[in-house]
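Example 3.2
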Amino acid sequence: MLAMGPEQSADRMAIFNQALSNFEQHATANGIGMQDLGTLLERTWSQLPPSVVLEAIDKMLDEAKSKESQESHSHLSMTSEKGSVNLNSTYELRLFQLLPVIEELDKDKADSLLRENAEIQAKLAKYPKGMESLTSQGNIYSYGMTDDDSPQAAQGATQQQARQQTEQEIIRRMTEIDKESQRDPQQGINDALMLPLQDAWQNNSPRAEALLMVARNSQNKKPTLAKSALDEISKFEDQLTPAQLKGIADVPKIYLDLGDEDGARKSLKAMVKAAEKLYAHDTDADDPNKAFKGTWPSADLWRRCIQLAGKISPNLAEEIIGGIPDPEIAAAQEIAFANALLGSSAQPEPMVVGDCRKTGSSYNVSQ
């Protein structure tokens, strides 16, 4: 959606309506997530008709409100490098997330909701943009929820709190590495290698992401050390999940920027394999991805691989396209690559990536 121009308003609405339909069908069963319909609205509301946005927000608030009687012991917490917030229900989370949008579109309604929810009013006074005030590059680094007060739940909450504290410490260390690597890239590499291979939820690889950060920070002034950081990633990239590899998809590009075509080709090969595994997950027969194919995680990673491959060799890009097992995705990538060859020099636009299943839905933005 973010990459669609005004002439594609119909396509934009189709994607949003699909996301809303998925929410209406599965919201109660799925609960909430940090990349769900609310997140999509946060990021794209300005590109949609206000009436559509407000209607969708009403549906999310109504659905969350209907759960309040079942959530007397709910506790939600979110942490990023910019702060943390604790909430007591799904409804409070939705208000914290969406009130900044409502205020832009219907100030009277926003004021009314704030008067009715004093606790949220206080939290938004501290974080006036809601989730956006907490996020860093679109990410909440730590998120947790419990919904009962049984001993088992208390134990689970304690474990969750411990994981969150671990994540906060990782965030702190990565922030230090970011600053340090700008002064001393070698020390940044050393410190990055001390980070865990995977985070507590196994969604990301702090070690790989920190090394990539060091490479970015040093590629202009100390390219040899930037390459060393990337080489360290290559030593353990076979231990990363496809989703974790997708999170460091810029590795081949930086290799190429450093003039190391061989390194770019090798890391690109790993990314293409990751895209194939993501496609297997997208087409899981038991719970397939119901989002438009063009927004699938696998399609997005193939897109990024082909963009980079085209800078190395048109034949390499064509080879990757030829290896895509899905004819529709392959055709779309062929068209996009052909357009690029015709001389489009603009930076790639951000793309919405959708993963809609019976077990949950998520939407995020990929560069």
